[in-house]
């Protein structure tokens, strides 16, 4: 069955952990409203499971054995790895979907080399989106990771190929599946430059998604991205893979660079699956 | 290669409650399990966020370690800036130096 929903969202730990410190309450509440709308759209899609394409931050994968792409086959996932009081999200167990995940993995492997993991601990990269989108943590989640943290990194063209393979695998399954890509655009997270956001760079990247400009999306080099968008910009791979899975243009529902305390230009969008 | 093990200590500490228990019970013994330079070992013994940043620890690892040490967010950012002033630019890792360390967050100035 074709995807029933595909979207993207940001995931900074400040979105929950530092929410009480925000001074620009108007922008914060607009973000939260956009996320509430996204939550409703996922619910109304009738999704039975959500594949989350994430860019985790050394919660499961390290430079001793770093997969470019990995999918989670576990029956349940634990999260967050962070101190619950720091992230302001309690520790929970989140259901997986091992049978479907295994079928997706088998299908994707026909064209893309993919690692798998039967154990997966969620960090803020998945927990923050779920906190807003499935606040009861009851929708089964299949986590997918693209290494965006420890270079060398997978090329953008391969992220696109992975996304295409993911979309086709979901279409070959009987279940109603949503795909959510979560990452930052430009940002310098967890460094002294935290809060720096290159809004023009972000908006140009989003324009390319909105216009389905594949060639332009895949033209960024990591050197350019690092200079213009920081090491956090490497996470555009999650958006690119989700765009490829969706095969449709992005409808941008919300963007603001006015919440630097969240350390990222906060983005919410969904892909038009009908074109 | 030393930075690899320095980050590995923190990676394992961040994700594993049993390693956290070992940290509290006997930190020097825990560190004996990793190939660390004296400077790296000292930075971990002292919880020196600024030096760890300068030595090249990825912020995504360092941020969680700082939270583990109960360091508040703005103090964490300031510790890295102080580290640059004290020890010089970042020496290794994914960011040799991402900027001048100015504050981009109004809330942190209050």
Protein model, in words:
The complex is a heterodimer of chains A (about 280) and B (about 110). Chain A is an alpha/beta fold and about 280 residues long. Chain A is about 35% helix and about 20% strand. Chain A has ten helices and ten strands. Chain A has helices spanning about 15, 25-45, 85, 100-110, 125-135, 155-170, 200-210, 215, 220-230, 235-245; strands spanning about 5-10, 50-55, 70, 75-80, 90-95, 115, 140-145, 175-180, 250-255, 265-270. An eight-stranded mixed sheet of chain A has the order 6-3-7-2-8-1-10-9, with helices on both faces. Chain A is globular. The mean pLDDT of chain A is about 95. Chain B has about 110 residues and is mainly alpha-helical. Chain B has one domain: Protocatechuate 4,5-dioxygenase, Chain A (Orthogonal Bundle), CATH 1.10.700.10. In chain B, helix 1 crosses helix 2 (about 15-25) and helix 5 (about 50-55) crosses helix 7 (about 75-85). The interface between A and B is medium-sized, with 37 and 33 residues.
Low-confidence stretches of chain A: none
> How many DSSP-defined strands of chain B?
0
Q: Strand sequence of the main sheet of chain A, in spatial order?
A: 6-3-7-2-8-1-10-9
In the CATH hierarchy, the third-tier topology of chain B is known as Protocatechuate 4,5-dioxygenase, Chain A
Order of helices and strands of chain A: EHHEEEHEHEHEHEHHHHEE
List keywords for this structure.
heterodimer; A: 275 residues; alpha/beta; Protocatechuate 4,5-dioxygenase, Chain B; 8-stranded mixed β-sheet; two-stranded antiparallel ribbon; 10 helices; 10 strands; 37% helix; B: 110 residues; mainly alpha; Protocatechuate 4,5-dioxygenase, Chain A; globular
Architecture blueprint of SSEs:
The complex is a heterodimer of chains A (275) and B (110).
Chain A (H helix, E strand, L loop, with lengths): L4 E5 L4 H4 L7 H20 L4 E6 L14 E4 L3 E4 L4 H4 L4 E4 L2 H11 L6 E3 L6 H10 L7 E6 L9 H17 L4 E6 L16 H12 L3 H4 L4 H8 L6 H11 L3 E7 L9 E6 L4
Parallel strand pairs in A: 1-8, 2-7, 2-8, 3-6
Antiparallel strand pairs in A: 1-10, 3-7, 4-5, 9-10
Chain B lengths: L1 H14 L1 H9 L1 H5 L6 H9 L2 H7 L3 H10 L4 H15 L23
Helix pairs in contact in B: 1-2, 1-6, 5-7
């Amino acid at each position: 069955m074709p995807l029933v929903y595909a979207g993207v969202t940001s995931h900074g730990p400040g979105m929950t952990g530092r929410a009480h410190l925000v001074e620009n309450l108007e922008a914060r509440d607009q973000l939260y409203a956009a996320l509430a709308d996204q939550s409703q759209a996922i619910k109304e899609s009738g999704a039975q499971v959500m594949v989350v394409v994430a860019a985790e931050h050394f919660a499961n994968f390290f430079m001793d054995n770093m997969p470019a792409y990995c999918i989670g086959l576990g029956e349940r996932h634990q999260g967050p790895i962070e101190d619950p009081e720091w992230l302001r999200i309690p520790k929970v167990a989140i259901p997986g979907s091992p049978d479907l995940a295994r079928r997706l993995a088998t299908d994707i492997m026909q064209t893309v080399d993919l690692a798998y993991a039967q154990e997966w601990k969620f960090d803020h990269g998945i927990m923050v989106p779920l906190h807003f989108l499935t606040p009861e943590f009851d929708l089964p989640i299949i986590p997918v990771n693209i290494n965006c943290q420890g270079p060398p990194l997978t090329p953008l063209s391969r992220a696109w190929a992975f996304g295409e393979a993911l979309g086709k695998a979901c279409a070959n399954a009987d279940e109603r599946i949503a795909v959510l890509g979560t990452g930052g655009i430009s940002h310098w997270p967890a460094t002294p430059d935290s809060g720096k956001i290159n809004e023009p760079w972000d908006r140009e990247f989003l324009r390319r998604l909105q216009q389905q400009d594949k060639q332009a999306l895949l033209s960024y080099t990591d050197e350019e991205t690092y200079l213009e968008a920081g090491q956090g910009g490497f996470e555009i791979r999650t958006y690119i893979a989700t765009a490829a899975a969706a095969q449709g243009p992005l409808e941008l529902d919300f963007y603001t660079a006015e919440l630097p305390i969240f350390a990222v230009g906060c983005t919410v969008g969904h892909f038009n699956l009908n074109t | 290669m030393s930075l690899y093990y320095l980050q590995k200590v923190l990676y394992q500490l961040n994700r594993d409650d049993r390693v956290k228990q070992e940290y509290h019970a006997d930190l020097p013994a825990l560190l004996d399990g990793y190939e660390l330079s004296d400077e790296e070992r000292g930075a971990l013994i002292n919880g020196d966020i600024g030096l760890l940043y300068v030595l090249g620890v990825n912020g995504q690892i360092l941020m969680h370690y700082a939270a583990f040490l109960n360091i508040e967010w703005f103090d964490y950012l300031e510790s890295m800036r102080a580290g640059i002033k004290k020890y010089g630019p970042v020496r290794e890792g994914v960011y040799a130096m991402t900027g001048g360390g100015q504050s981009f967050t109004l809330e942190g100035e209050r």
